Every structure is written in C-alpha cells, then in structure tokens.
Amino acid sequence: MTNNNDKNLMENMLLLEKGVCDLYMHGAIESSTANVHQTFNSALNNSLAIQDSIYSKMSAKGWYAPEQAEQNKINSVKQKFCCSQGAN
Predict the structure, then answer these.
(1) Angle made by CA atoms 42, 46, 52, in degrees to the nearest 5
(2) Taking the domains of the chain in order of start, what are their residue ranges?
(3) How far is the C-alpha of 34 from the C-alpha of 65, rounded, in Å?
C-alpha cells in the first residue's frame, strides 16, 4: 500500500511542479522589465530542474512511462513544419 501512496504523492508533486513551471513561463513572457523577466526565468529554470528530478525518480520506479509517438504522426508533423517554414 505504501508503494501506491508514494506513487500518488509523486504524481501529485509532478502535476503541481508542471503547473508552477507554466506560471513562471507566463510570468517571464509577460514581464515588463529585464529584472522581472530574469527573476521569472531563474525561478522557471529551478522549477524545471525539480520537475526533471521528480520525473527521473518516477521513471526509475516504472511509474511514468511516456508514450511512443507513431512514425506516421511524426512524419506528418515534420511535413507540416517543413512546408510552413518554406512558405514564409
């Protein structure tokens, strides 16, 4: 039972940290001065490091397995961006 509780706790921590990263990113984008931008950017980088650490621990325990993208979907996206860049 503890293992499942640990997994749920880590999932909640990861979701929270992703939300924090999102807030800091938007703060950096919307900041009006270089000093405020740098503060949000620094906080974002710290939060990304925390998020990566949580993800790594979950992945090592087999609690977070990213889905593999299908090759036809990858090719479709590559084609879309290849052609849209050439149109500009």
Answers:
(1) 140
(2) 2-66
(3) 38
